[in-house]
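Regression report. Comparing outputs from two consecutive submissions.

Submission 1:
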Amino acid sequence: MTKTLRKKTPERAKILSALCLGALILYALARIPWIAEHVFARGVTRWLSFLLNRLTNVIPVSLYEIAAAVLVAGGVVLLVFLVAFLAKKNYARAGIWLYRTAVAALAALLSFGVLYAPLYARENADAALGLKTDVTEQSLFAAAEYYVSALNETSARLGRDESGNVLPTCGFAELSRKLNDCYDAFGGGYFADYEVRPKAVLLSVPMSYLGITGIYFPFTAEANVNVNIPCYEIPCTAAHEMAHAKGVSRENEANIVSYAVCILSEDDYFRYSGLMNAAAILLNALPDGQYETLRGRLDEKVLREYADARAHYEKYEGFIDSLSSFFNDLFLKANGVPSGTASYGETAESLVALYEKIKNAADC
């Protein structure tokens, strides 16, 4: 037994070295913009994601949830066995388990390097949306004023529940279909043109404690949505995760894509979702005096919904949420996003550009 293990040790070292070298080469290539865009984003990554998407679209439940549960359970089992082996001084068996774990981790890293990592180095989504402008103090205020006015008008056309919060105009399946139609309207080849069916997560409450409103799982090409969030957030959250599935990895870009999808939609529920986010972001970007002026114009129903949403999220804040945010920050920075989780809010300039695009279209 000992001789067999000794013979296998160099072989295992070679396998681990080959996997590490492969990962290094893959991630180095994925950082080169032209390769990231034309070899991966519009080529290998898109086709593999399409095949995975076709398989998982027909499964009604989220495979991400199952994978997460298996991973947690597997981690606990691994830890128990390692402790048992070490307690019995069975270092050979412990080494085998660690080797298998390392191989599995490197295989996952390589898969991620093909299925998602290259998207961080591709062309900016703003260009695909036709968003470009020089932001001034005047244009920032004008954009914020527009979004506040549009939000009030859209709010007046929607029904509300007994708590004063907006009611959805469609079910989750219909929401998915409509969002796919919105993406189809963009065209141009930047976004993958296959249908993405976002999935409502059954374990939404645990996700809330982790501070996760949605997550794209590249290993199954699934856009997962936490439905334990304010109703008005669901269209934007679904559109955000769909943006990841269609080739947009950076969080700020997925945000602006989701805002554009919803605001440009003809569905008032979608528009309300996008406008609630856009108005809040631009109001917070204004100087204090201008902020107070425009905030004072917001309809009382809108202000109440903002307050209800804030109270909802505060219920789930705590150590677990902070820990999850910490690791997400590390993950984003490791993938070439220097601002980490702060990148989620880096959309003010793009929202001004979206306003300019809407205004120019109306003037034509």
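Submission 2:
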Amino acid sequence: MAVQKSGATQAMSVNVDRKQVLVDALRRRIMTMEIAPGAVIDEQELAEEFGLSRPPVRELMRQMAGEGYIELEANRPARATAMSYHALRDFYLVAPMIYVATTKLAAENARPADIAALRAIQRDFRAAVDDGDLNARIFANDAFHLEIGKIARNAYLLPSLRRLLIDHARVGRTYYRDDVSDKAELGTAAAQHDQIIDAIERRDPETAGRIVQAHLELSRRNMAAYAVPEGMEMPPGL
């Protein structure tokens, strides 16, 4: 005989669901820059949109601030984390260290189910590339690298990777160019994903690390090309 949930239990379940929907929506909006870096995030508007009171919204925003999506300061409204020149510089200084370390550990710790999960995400990534769906590609790329971080099974590296992935998504959204050269590079990026999976499956951390470093170099070059007007030579070091 099925046991019916009490009214209080049902209300709690609905509230938890709404909170998760809010978190997922806010993450997506920040990653796709529907909410621009540095833009104010209105707590009351979110509460009304998702049918929540302000205290749980405030709690969720504190959680997301800890993850790096939101900046909270005393006596000031919440804002989407800014993306300054210095933040981008720090990203490209630190990202190779974190991505390479997590990918190498993933190659040492991967199980058959992990490889299957990566290949499923990679199918989504390739479908997004083929469809020209920028947002779907960004989310699939995020899921791909996050899954590698989970496979690495390192409690110290995963939080750093999660923070990097926020700006990795926003960098991809900002510096994407819908031209032939960028589409060719997307094909290269997709092939590199496959090579990373193969190296992880073979338990070859050195090869996996080299490929993911080359993968990040594609992103850095796109950013540099965006910053330098067409016809100008790229400054040394970019």
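Expected: both submissions complete independently.
Actual: both completed, but the second showed a warning that disappeared on reload.
Relevant detail on submission 2: Residues 85-227 form a domain with the Four Helix Bundle (Hemerythrin (Met), subunit A) fold (CATH 1.20.120.530).
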